[in-house]
Amino acid sequence: MSIDLTIVWAAIIGFAVMAYVVMDGFDLGIGILFPTLAVGEERDQAMNSIAPVWDGNETWLVMGGGGLLAAFPLAYAIILPATYPLMIAMLLGLVFRGVAFEFRWRDSRHRALWDVAFWLGSLVAAFAQGVTLGAILQGIHVENDAYAGGWLDWLSPFSVLTGISVVVGYGLLGATWLIWKTEGTSQRHARRAAFWLGAGTLAALGAVSAATPFLDYDYWRRWFTMPNVLATAQVPLLVVICAVTFFWSLKQGRERLPFLMSLALFLLSFIGLGISIYPYAVPRAITIWDAAAPPQSQSFMLVGALIIIPLILAYTAWAYWVFRGKVGTAGYH
Amino acid sequence: MFDNLDPVILARAQFAFTVSFHFIFPSFSIGLASYLMVLEALWLKTGQGVYANLFRYWLKIFAVVFGMGVVSGVVLSYQFGTNWSVFSTKAGPIIGPLMAYEVMTAFFLEAGFLGVMLFGINKVGKGLHFFATCMVALGTLISATWIIAVNSWMQTPAGFVVNAKGQFVAAGSWLPIIFTASFPYRLVHTVIAAYLTTAFVVGGVGAWHLLRDRSNPGARKMFSMAMWMAAIVTPIQILAGDAHGLNTLEHQPAKVLAMEGHYEPSPNGASLILFGLPSNKDAAVRYKIEVPYLGSLILKHDPTAPLPGLSDFPRDQWPPVPIVFWSFRIMVGLGFAMLGLGLWSLLARFRGKLYDWPWLHRASVAFGPAGFVAVIAGWVTTEVGRQPFTIYGLLRTAESSSPLAAPAVAVSLIAFVVVYFAAFGAGTYYLLRLMAKPPEAREKEPPKVPQRAAGITPAAAGAQLTAGE
């Protein structure tokens, strides 16, 4: 058979991570923006706009983690110990924000407390994810197929930069989602926030892109040597086009386009990361073929994945469609 | 500060803590999802408002329980990697695909339809809403099936070969990996346990409100339904547990011997030790109260059949007997007490006094949380009984862990304990507060719409909470 299942699985895991980033990205982003929303109607609207879908969004994180364990067990077994405190922080953050969805309605006296939990949990989870990205990009110390570094090796100026970038980027996704799903004052606030978060995201994107090629000679070679540059140059070009469209759509008062352009920016960043990392599962140490599960495991899962993932996408799309339109002040109920 | 602690012990404590805490929620939400499905079906079929009221009542509770189950479950999918990376590398090719199937066939199904189930009643028709409820219930059962397959493979591994990298990989077909020797027994026992746990919670809540108002139709209906479950399903569970035990004796004899407290072999028939203080150090059970021959009668169905002892096994393969011995007795004791409650309710029912015996209601309230205790005790029995292995007989727990730093594990363990008690403690309090409100008889006639669970308009939510206080 000529199809390399390892590449297929790398694509599936990549898709799951991407799906997670954009879907949980906007609902984590709403958490990050929560303190800037007015107490009462504005917060309730924001919460109601994501309450029916956040659980499905977060399931992509389990798919990413579980899929990595299944398809690339060695990568899973190296990356997680290497980013141990980040993973724990992310998980605890997700606990706090996840329970806040229900708890804030169950306890009006302590709603302010659960709103803080929702904000802090979202912020910590997003930051930890961003730092993890930086930690993977800057390289992980591997010996004998196991993590061989200390428990704080992930901490560096670069990883903090990627952490902040992801927080700002998720904020942008959240703000543009609110432009789409709300109206009136909420929408106006979201529009103003989206402008600054858009500018911030582009600055962060620029800073990370500028710093990445200097982490390692290989990244430089991938991006800037001929003939690669002819292909890779399309990414920043498209980023510029999306950025211009984004600000234009914001100014025009468009409701859906800012969100779609923000998604496009994330997608392009993701492609950029792919160009930098491929074919490594752990940059500079473990390739996807080193890390891959044996072919029996890959093909067993693939049969299911090819049938089930399209079904998942279909009913997820249906669930979003059921809750289409503005959330309104009284919610959608 | 934590450098002189054993990181593997800390990692084990962390996993035991997070997995035990997590399983409290699914053991409730598996049962509750099916209960909600039954209630909605009865409502659609009969049009009686009481079913809609109960559906709405338990849906609010389900939303809180499910949320806590999700977030505590996400933690587990990453803990295999943070603390048990050697296990993940070696067993990943076998258990990874099973868990990936769990995510794809169960988690997405539950999550995808949960939004519609909780919030969508006004957005979709009744039939489609019922379909969403069914999909959520189905998702919980599919999830249980896959994760029990994973656990059972770790208990009774089959269908694998070890490759050059030392990884466990499928030998051929995946069927022997999924359908291992202990899988059907463990699955049946676990799912029935979830149903019984839910039944006793529902029964406890119903009884609580009957003690205040015997005429509340919602309380009467839920108490009656729960007591049917207690009377019919508890005996089935005891039989399933017995079959599971015999299966364990065949495949993991050391675990059963630890449960029974038999250090020495019994060539002429084993006694049943009711109580005592086992000690691995002395290899003996002190102060034991035992019934001669009953052990062999239960385990071999022959009073004089010989039974081995733990001393027939190498010392370094003994599980920690005291924990297993006692957790097993807690589970079995509660099981028989539940049976007693079920029989008591039958007596009351046939005398026409099901809603009139306050002591039956008080006992039911006391037994509200009994299912959770029994479930956790059962899992402690089977998981601690598997020690000192993660993959029974093949991979030792001590050789499964990540290259761990004790301070990182210790700090994160403390963080988990603090966060879980804060977040899930608050959640439990909110659940109890929801349960303390009597089911309202809001709908006498077949209603157009039941009210939805969470995200009610703030004013309405506030009013409802105040009404409940």
What does this structure look like?
The complex is a heterodimer of chains A (333) and B (469). Chain A has one domain (7-322). Chain A has helices at 5-33, 41-50, 54-71, 73-82, 84-106, 111-138, 157-181, 184-211, 217-224, 228-232, 234-251, 257-277, 288-291, 295-322; strands spanning 142-143, 146-147, 280-282, 286-287. In chain A, the strands form two sheets. Chain A has a two-stranded antiparallel ribbon with strand order 1-2. A two-stranded antiparallel sheet of chain A has the order 3-4. Chain A is mostly helical. Chain A is 77% helix and 3% strand. In chain A, strand 1 (142-143) and strand 2 (146-147) form a beta hairpin. Chain B is mainly alpha-helical and 469 residues long. The longest helix of chain B has 40 residues, at 7-46. Chain B has a two-stranded antiparallel sheet with strand order 1-2. Chain B has a two-stranded antiparallel ribbon with strand order 3-4. Chain B has a two-stranded antiparallel ribbon with strand order 5-6. In chain B, 68% of the residues lie in helices and 6% in strands. Chain B has helices at 7-46, 49-83, 85-119, 126-155, 175-178, 183-212, 217-251, 253-260, 294-300, 321-350, 358-366, 370-384, 406-436, 458-468; strands spanning 160-162, 168-170, 272-279, 284-291, 389-391, 395-396. In chain B, 52% of the residues are buried. Residues 445-469 of chain B have low confidence and may be disordered. Chain B is globular, with a radius of gyration of 24 Å. Chain B contains 14 helices and six strands. The chains are: A mainly alpha (333), B mainly alpha (469).
List its traits.
heterodimer, A: 333 residues, mainly alpha, two-stranded antiparallel sheet, 77% helix, B: 469 residues, two-stranded antiparallel ribbon, 14 helices, globular
